[in-house]
Amino acid sequence: MLSRVAPDLEHAAAAIAARGGQLGSRLIFVDETESTNDDAKRGAKDGALHGTVWLAESQTRGRGRQGRSWFSQRGENLLFSVLLRIACAPSRVPPVSLACGLAVRDAVAAALGDDASVLVKWPNDVLIKRPSDGRARKVAGILPESTVAGARTAHIVVGIGINVHTRALPEDLSDIATSLAIERAERGFQGAPDRASILADVLAALDHDVEHVAHRGLGLVHDRLSRYDAAFGREVDGGANGVLGIACGIDPDGRLLVRNAEGIIKHVSSGEVRVRMI
Ligand code: BTN
Which atom of ligand 1 is nearest to the CA of 68? Predict the structure, then answer.
């Protein structure tokens, strides 16, 4: 357990309770772990309740999507995983993941104080567009991992990493990644972002949307998703299949809509393609 809790996380439990939701009412907070997603998956096996959250100051084997690692300096950022005991069709996991992206977007936008510049990049990233150069950089990533029992999910673990206090990024990342502190400074805002409030805001937004999306699909959040869709109008790269076309929206099942050179619209799933932001 933590020997000393950082000041901006001290009131995390109180901030979560103040929003009155179910998610995060059980908060397991450690100084260091291998990966909060692995902790949550172990917890799920051991009977942890819906909405339990694992939060860490650092991870020794933090994981990103597609086998990548997720690196974060101790104490700078938000690293947490939420256990959702939701029984839904496995095909609803991508829409749930997009709803999580929106929840993170909303919390990041509130902390930044600039709503229009914070976007969701299909399938799982949150980006901030910097006014000085117009480029969108990644501020947060989401790693959903589901366990299926029969034809339904037994549970979904949603791992979330948000760059909050990081001030300096390695040169090779500074064009593609950012943090709330960097973007607030870019806008001339005073004061540091508060991790407890951001965490509580994410959990409250998840509480609001996620079960609905898992059982009824993206309908409720689709308009907001379209408004903040970073991929819209961008080139979509089909990897070995060559360039596929231009992103033109997200369908109700959470697949990316891509218009090819012949004007035909394809529905593509995550993992099949890459959206080019630069
Ligand atoms: C991505 O953008 O590739 C997803 C990154 C997800 C990182 C978070 S940090 C907390 C949780 N634990 C992990 O090991 N990964 C997720």
Answer: 3
Give the residue, out of 63, 139, 202, with the most ligand 1 atoms within 8 A of its beta carbon, to mutate for a pocket test: 63
Residues 6+ apart with CB under 8 A from 210: 84, 86, 96, 99, 100, 103
Amino acid at the residue 239? G
Assessment of whether the complete model's pTM goes beyond 0.90: yes
SS3 (DSSP) at 67: helix
Per-residue pLDDT of the chain (278 residues; tens, 9 = 90+): 445 789 999 999 999 999 999 999 999 999 999 999 999 999 999 999 999 999 999 999 999 998 999 999 999 999 999 999 999 999 999 999 999 999 999 999 999 999 999 999 999 999 999 999 999 999 999 999 999 999 999 999 999 999 999 999 989 999 999 999 999 999 999 989 999 999 999 999 999 999 999 999 999 899 999 999 999 999 999 877 678 999 999 999 999 999 999 999 999 998 778 899 87
For the CA of 64, the closest atom of ligand 1 is: 3
Contact between residue 239 and residue 86 where contact means Cβ atoms under 8 Å apart:
no
Please give the distance, rounded to the nearest whole angstrom, from the Cα atom of residue 144 to the centre of ligand 1. Answer: 9
31 alpha carbon – ligand 1 mean position (Å): 16
